[in-house]
Amino acid sequence: MDLQIALLLGQDGITNGAIYALLSLALVLVFAVTRVIFIPQGEFVAFGALTLASFQAGKVPGTLWLLIGAGIAVAVVDLRAVLGRSRQRRRIFSILGWNLVYPVVLAILIHLAKPGELPLAAQVILALALVVPLGPMTYRLAFQPLAEASVLVLLIVAVGVHFALVGLGLLFFGAEGSRTPAFSDGSLTLGSLTVGAQTLWVLGSSLTLIVVLAFFFERTIYGKALRATAMNRTGARLMGISTVMAGKLSFLLASLIGAFSGVLIAPITTVYYDTGFLIGLKGFVGAIVGALSSYPLAALGALLVGLLEAFSSFWASAFKEVIVFTLIIPVLVWLSLTTHQVEEEE
Amino acid sequence: MGATAAVPVLEISDLCVSYGKVEALHHAGLRVGQGQIVTVIGPNGAGKTTMLSAIMGLLPRSRGRICFQGVDLDGAEVEDMVAHGVNLVPESRALFGEMSVEDNLLLGAFSRHRSGLRDQAQTMEEVFRVFPRLKERRSQHAGTLSGGERQMLALARALMAKPKLLMLDEPSLGLAPLIVRDIFRVIGALKATGVSILLVEQNARAALQVADYAYVLETGEIALEGPSRELIDDPKVVESYLGLGGKR
After folding, report:
1. Which of A85, A251, B99, B194 has the most beta carbons within 10 angstroms of its beta carbon?
2. Is B74 in the same domain as B171?
């Protein structure tokens, strides 16, 4: 290997690592707040990328029907819960608005605007508007009724949701992979290293998103409320921070991060309906390095995963995935030797 | 004013709570009048914490009515209670240990923030006036505070919500006597600000001295009630809860 190749692999590794880092942050967040190990994270990556690709092919993405269907299901469940209790009548408007009116307005917009002819930025925003609300809806339908269940039960449900979403992905987008054009053309040459424009987009956007998230958690009251729920669920409830609100908010952030990552990687890799799973799992390895609790360690771990993947694809490309996932074993051994067993809350 | 004074801040009646098949609270009832300090004393395991948790909505109630300022709040969840102006400082304090004192206080006002009120900075100054010690430690992590400071922070955090009814579960638990005296001085002073207080204590003497009215809870039932001034001299209370030195 010469320097040229090492630089190339390093660039590749950091680019993928940045995406894994974003996903690992989402996984840590969702686990800390809701104790759900969010296996379906990767499906949001695939849905984001494939929804954007559908727009560009001039098709109506199937995720629109999923959003409408999930919206109806959430509205039914929420209305049943609210109608039994007179105190919450005022919530009816917000339930109907978010779950029924919003998807329908989006559907009308997509049919009128012909997304295939819109500029790329508008397509990206539309794709995110379609996919991101699926996160909190997933929480409402699959996890909120089980809020008091054990981590293992929540994990099993998460696996079930993952399979359901992968199946729906195949139904909506077919078995064919898609790739979208780069956000901008051109490249940057630094000495002997040439960096593609999309790589810069990925790195810049990931960094920006990480900074925005850090600001959200450190400086805003809702960010602090999420951290408070992660630290002490009962204490947070006593402040009026509802566990349901915190759960929905963390799933919203996770699906935003997932769908946005999908949009970012769609120009550099062909995305299939089931591509998200492996990407999400690599984010998970990163999150494990951070013991599912430390954001900076998770991000560093994810970056390490990206680099390890890039270099092992050069030396032993057939064993690339094996090498990456084997990383989890020494980390788990290290964690089990150094951390004290913490009893599950309550 | 006369009419509102007649409506108690909190009135519960026939409250029952069960853990599985075991009933921990039987048909308990009590009232807290406007601006009153009411205490519930009783031995360990009598159901005092259970009662507060059930009023707050942390535990499911198997039966009973909860009336807050004349409004029926049966089946209300914790978040509803907070929104109505009821706050609980639990025995565990339930602080956010890895957050600064200031952030803990800010989150105390979360419910007010959600309903669009933005007077947190001013409220925090008021709270710092009551607890100057917390102002000195405002940027320190809550987890690094001493036991007394933690209890002060838990109290201060609840005050950030500007509660109409403050429920305190064993505020003196595990604290040195000098600090207990401080805490009870603050509780007594809170009365002047118009907040009503429901105080659960094992330290019966301190509780009876600060309270207007008292209930004695034994094995899940209200065994005795009366103005604190009378209970403090009641031979039964003196014998069971105050010991020989009870009459000072």
Report:
1. A251
2. yes
With b meaning 16 or more CB within 10 Å and e meaning fewer, what string describes A123-149? bbebbbbbbbbbbbbbbbebbbeeeee
Q: Say if residue A191's pLDDT is above 80.
A: no
| Residue A294 in this model has a pLDDT that exceeds 80 | yes
Last residue of a domain, one of B114, B131, B162: B162
Of the candidates A221, A231, A234, the beta carbon closest to that of B110 is on A221
> Residue B1 pLDDT > 60, yes or no?
no
Please say whether the beta carbons of A268 and A15 come within 8 A: yes
Per-residue pLDDT reduced to its tens digit, B19-35 = 888 888 999 999 999 99
| Mean per-residue pLDDT over chain B, rounded | 90
At residue B3, the pLDDT reads: 42
Q: What is the pTM of this model?
A: 0.91
B96/A227 touch (CB, cutoff 8 Å), yes or no: yes
For residue B75, give the chain A residue with the closest CA. Answer: A85
CB contact under 8 A, B75 and A85: yes
Do the domain assignments include residue B91?
Answer: no
Please report the ipTM that was assigned to this predicted complex: 0.91
Q: Which of A87, A225, A234 sits opposite B110 (nearest CB)?
A: A225
Query: CA–CA distance from B53 to each of A141, A275, B10, B70 (Å)?
Result: 28, 47, 14, 20
Q: How many domains does chain B have?
A: 2
Answer yes or no: do B161 and A228 touch at CB < 8 A. no
Residues of B in contact with A231 (CB under 8 A): 96-99
A85: closest chain B residue by CA: B75
CB contact under 8 A, A239 and B107: yes
Cα nearest neighbour of B92 on chain A: A235
Same domain? B52 vs B157: no
B87 touches chain A (CB under 8 A): yes
Q: What would the pLDDT profile of A197-212 be if each residue is shown by its tens digit? A: 899 999 999 999 999 9
